[in-house]
User: What shape does this take?
Amino acid sequence: MILPGATLGLLGGGQLGRMFTSAARTLGYQVTVLDPDAHAPAAEFATHHLARGYADEAALAELARTCAAVTTEFENAPAAALDALASRTVVRPSGASVAIAQDRRREKTFFAERAFPVGAFACIDSAADLAAARGRVKFPALLKTARLGYDGKGQARVENEADLAERFAQWKGVPCVLEELLALEKEISVVLARTAAGALAVFPVVENVHARGILDLSIAPARIAPALASEAVALASRLAGELEYEGVLAIEMFVVGGKLLLNEIAPRPHNSAHYTIDACRTSQFQQQVRVLCDLPLGDPSQHTPAVMVNLLGDIWRGTEPAWQAVLRHPEAHLHLYGKREVRSGRKMGHVTVCDPSPERALAVALEIRQALGIAG
Assistant: This one.
């Protein structure tokens, strides 16, 4: 075990890193954050901040020398940097796991080759692949860049063959995945922690509602049949095992025709499980610390139904939002990420409403959402 007092390293200093750092510091660890942003949100809570690039050899050498273990808070951390660190210190998750999540082609192919349920898709590496893709996926469809797409970025709906060719050309022929446009009944996610020894702790299944491709609401537990929730947990658990994953992993799924289809994975804590800070016995961030340090996993059970509302930069409108609309509710928990620059679509914080009545939790969350002027 890596016990409190040790120094942990973190690649990335965003809000996920901020919440990881808070959990680690609470447990008594020191934290060094590597992030080129001088005002990275996680750096405010860290004991040391390396304001350098993720591939900076001197910074990586310092992490390896001073940190008992290193993790990441975003899937676009260079897998090569994780591999380099792994030769000198403990790294979780591995660069190999992160590399699969970084490329939609590898991710979808990994699902399909291991007989996980997945919607129709086709990998497009060049214009020569367009004809074959049209034969595998029905229109309308979604074209997604293989790398660097998130929160609705790097994806577009295409209605026909001409539309597909035009969009692919607009994106300058970068590798893509074409996915069948599915009739979604619900979007859900399963977030779990898995240790190096294969022990699992799975959080309750969450129901997610998106607006403009960005998570808007998360409802926990999800409003789905218990049998479907059990199936989702089983799929997520098997996938974590197939990946030989070590860390906190999020698996996004679609409910289509009463059946589950895998969408994508995130090799890190997930926006949809922020509710675990306030509504579960152990948060996803404390689990991340525990896996990293070879500590026994905490109890992931949920003690209170919860609904999370994402707070995007759109609600600032040149001034601070009316936080009194949140704070007047005793069951509401406000979390702001300390980001200095406000932008439309940027995740600035979240509110979690906890109540013994799931219906009331949702009603209060929707009331807060309306009072803050959240569109959609």
